[in-house]
Every structure is written in C-alpha cells, then in structure tokens.
Amino acid sequence: MEFWKFMFVPTILFLVIVAPMWITMHYRSVSRSSRSLKQEDRQSIEHMLETVDKLTDRIGTLESILDDDHAQWRQQVSRPERGAHTGQGQGKEQK
Q1: H or E element: which one contains 29?
Q2: Rounded to an integer, what distance in angstroms lies between the CA atom of residue 30 and that of residue 13?
Q3: What residues have CB less than 8 Å from 37, skipping those under 6 apart?
Q4: What distance in Å separates the CA atoms of residue 26 and residue 66, rounded to the nearest whole number?
Q5: Are 74 and 64 spatial neighbours (Cβ–Cβ below 8 Å)?
Q6: Residues 65, 73 contacting (CB under 8 angstroms)
Q7: Model-level pTM greater than 0.70?
Q8: Distance (Å) of CA 4 to CA 12, 14, 15, 17, 40
Q9: What is the dihedral of CA 55, 57, 58, 61, to 10 degrees?
Q10: CB-based contacts of 82: which residues, under 8 Å, 6+ apart?
Q11: What is the rounded CA–CA span in Å between residue 38 and residue 44?
Q12: Residue ranges of the chain with pLDDT lower than 50?
C-alpha cells in the first residue's frame, strides 16, 4: 500500500503535465512531416507535368494539321451526350 501512496503524486503529474505535452508534440511533428512532399513524390509530379506538356504540344500539332487539311473538321465532330458511355444516356435521343 505504501508503494501506491508513493506513486500517486508522480502519476498525477505525469498524466496532467507530461502526457498532454508528449501527445501534442508527437502529433505536431507528424503533421509537419506529412506536409512536405517526399523526393519520390516530387519526381513523380515533375514527370507527370512533363508528360502533360508533351501531350499538349502533340494535341496542338494535330489540331493545326487538321486545320490545314480539313478546315471544317471541328464542325463535323459530333460528341455523344454526357453519360452516354456509362449507360445513363440510353433512352434519350442523340443529336
């Protein structure tokens, strides 16, 4: 019984002062580390941006070729209604 009387005050101090600070500092460091991107993620994003730039250039080139060869190609293209590829457009008249 004497052991519990001896440990009562340090236990209360730990629970009231040390534990909340410990938990706060832990989650603060976790949030800081999750905010920054890892090097691998940065490289992946850079690679994706380069791919997007290349594809944008290719689309521009293809459109300019089509504009030169078939001036009215933009008016000839008919797009299906939204949702037609998922089956939502079934039963509606297509233009």
Answers
A1: helix 19-35
A2: 25
A3: 45
A4: 59
A5: no
A6: no
A7: no
A8: 12, 15, 15, 20, 52
A9: 160
A10: 89
A11: 10
A12: 89-95
- Containing H/E element for 46? helix 39-69
Non-local (6+) Cβ contacts of 83 within 8 A are 89
Contact present, 82 and 89 (Cβ < 8 Å): yes
Cα separation of 58 and 65, whole Å?
Answer: 11
- Domain ranges in the chain are 1-33, 37-72
- Please state, in angstroms and rounded to a whole number, the distance separating the CA atoms of residues 21 and 41: 32
Q: State the SS3 of 13-24.
A: HHHHHHHHHHHH
- The confidence score (pLDDT) of residue 94 equals 44
* pLDDT score of 34: 73
Q: How many CB atoms lie within 10 A of CB 84?
A: 13
Q: At residue 50, what is the residue type?
A: E
